[in-house]
Amino acid sequence: MSNNKPALHTCLSPALLHLYEVSNSIVVIIDVLRATSTIATALYNGAKAVIPVDSVAKCIEIGRQIEGITAGERDGLIAEGLTYGNSPFEYPREFVAGKMLVLTTTNGTRLLHMALEKGAKEIITGSFPNLSAVCDHLAAANQHVILGCAAWRDKVNIEDMLFAGAVISRIKKHFNVNCDSSHIAETIYDKAKKDLFGFMKKNDASHYHRLMNYNLEKDIRYCLAEDGANVLPLYEEGKLLLK
Amino acid sequence: MSNNKPALHTCLSPALLHLYEVSNSIVVIIDVLRATSTIATALYNGAKAVIPVDSVAKCIEIGRQIEGITAGERDGLIAEGLTYGNSPFEYPREFVAGKMLVLTTTNGTRLLHMALEKGAKEIITGSFPNLSAVCDHLAAANQHVILGCAAWRDKVNIEDMLFAGAVISRIKKHFNVNCDSSHIAETIYDKAKKDLFGFMKKNDASHYHRLMNYNLEKDIRYCLAEDGANVLPLYEEGKLLLK
Question: In this structure, what are the phi and psi dihedrals at residue B78, rounded to the nearest 5 degrees?
């Protein structure tokens, strides 16, 4: 019976998170461009851990304490006072292996801390580079799931919805999906999946524009490609670690 | 130049309304199932005005004062203490012509009052039964527009997004549409437009289920059909009147 399956919901903006039962769910933090893609990449390339923090000041302070790499962006550019940005290409194995990364971003790290405050049962991060790892974990977990889109300053965005749709299309048979946002996400993904980059371009996605203006097409293409860094970042005691 | 065009945004939930510049915009209140469909229908059938109120108590009080019809629903059923519900079929010409309708609903009237409090430049109501009237008005107005989806208890729903997409597909050339939610709505509408009822059914829309459980398929089909009550309800001094 479908009634015995756990529930899956998609939360399209942090400003809607209070509508969902966070405390009995696995929350997947989704910030496709680029926080969660970069987190997967850094861990895949051997980073010891990624410490997500919600302010630049905290990033600098913790970075100093643990001798970590201070990284992050505000509005898509390296934040003032930090050494590195939010591009996955800044974290190749030869640079990041064995190091701690302290990361602050406009939307993704903020949503993670919101889920934490609301008592999420488990927090993982999801992006196209680690799509399969996320799906395999959720399909096996037998727990309620909230796909949490980081959005852009609380406004719904296309790319996080596309990732939610990709997850749903792969694992929906394991869940009760009684959630219009999830059905919308799956429909959009189904329409876009043959060419995600082209879909972002054609639909004039706001984040596509923002990053193209910084000559970051390479980042966008990497962040929309499946399984380039197929690991599962799990949040434990202040850190994202490999499960 | 596209830069001279006014902006169009889609707000997918009342809980996101604070992200948009309501005070310099026309706000279209969208509550397809069924508040705004019923408002258009009652006015089309000759109601003198529809007074949207945000509580059952206020509905009863005002209804008594003006000798109006007290109507409304909570969770899809006639609210206790009110005489009529939220179905467009309750308001044929022979019943409603010349009368005042005092209406309270779960989502639509609440969003209207939020837009009012935030100082919207103009408030109109939109639904498939008055799609063309809404589009003609917006295309001619040369004002910024917010398509405000009433949603369901702040959760994004399919049918209000479909209506937003229908509006966008018809009038986008008159606007700058720099808004991912609008592009998503248009994509969903484009996918669904050949058979809106079938799309709602196939995608297991939560509101589709809720109303089908009350044997209201006829209501759903009417509320998804274009231009059955093609008038423009405009909010003025506490009342929705024909423009």
Answer: -55, 130
Nearest to B230 by CA among B87, B123, B134, B90: B134
Q: Which residues pair with A149 in a beta bridge?
A: A30
Give the residue carrying structure tokens 């007074």. B51
Q: Are B123 and B29 in contact (CB under 8 A)?
A: yes
Contacts of A18 (CB under 8 A, 6+ apart): A118
Distance of alpha carbon A34 from alpha carbon A27, whole angstroms: 18
Residues in chain A closer than 8 A to B155 (CB atoms): 16, 19, 179-181
Per residue in B137-147, pLDDT tens? Answer: 999 999 999 99
CB pair distance less than 8 Å for B184 and A184: yes
**A191 to chain B nearest CA, in Å?**
8
How many C-beta atoms surround the C-beta of residue B7 within 10 A? Answer: 18
Asked if B155 is an interface residue toward chain A (Cβ–Cβ < 8 A), one would say yes
Strand-pairing partners, residue A9, are: A146
Mean pLDDT, chain B, rounded, equals 94
- Asked if A118 contacts A19 with a C-beta cutoff of 8 angstroms, the reply is no
pLDDT for residue A1 = 43
- Interchain proximity A12–B12, CB inside 8 Å: yes
The closest CB to that of B206, out of A12, A15, A178, belongs to: A178
Within 8 A by CB and 6+ apart from A16, the residues are B13, B15, B16, B154, B155, B156
pLDDT > 90? residue B105 = no
Extract the residue ranges of chain A whose pLDDT is less than 70. Answer: 1-3
Contact state of B205 with A180 under an 8 Å Cβ cutoff:
yes
The residues pairing with A152 across neighbouring beta strands, listed in sequence order, are A155
A212 has a chain B CB within 8 A of its CB: no
To the nearest whole Å, the CA of B222 is away from the closest chain A CA by: 21
The residue length of chain B stands at: 243
Sheet containing strand B8-11, edge to edge, reads B8-11, B144-149, B25-30, B122-126, B233-236, B239-242, B49-52, B100-104, B69-74, B77-78
Interface pTM (ipTM) of the complex?
0.94
* pLDDT at residue number B1: 43
Give the pLDDT band (50/70/90) at residue B173: very high
pLDDT tens per residue across span B215-235: 889 999 999 999 999 999 999
- Quote the CA–CA distance of A45 and A41 in Å, as a whole number: 6
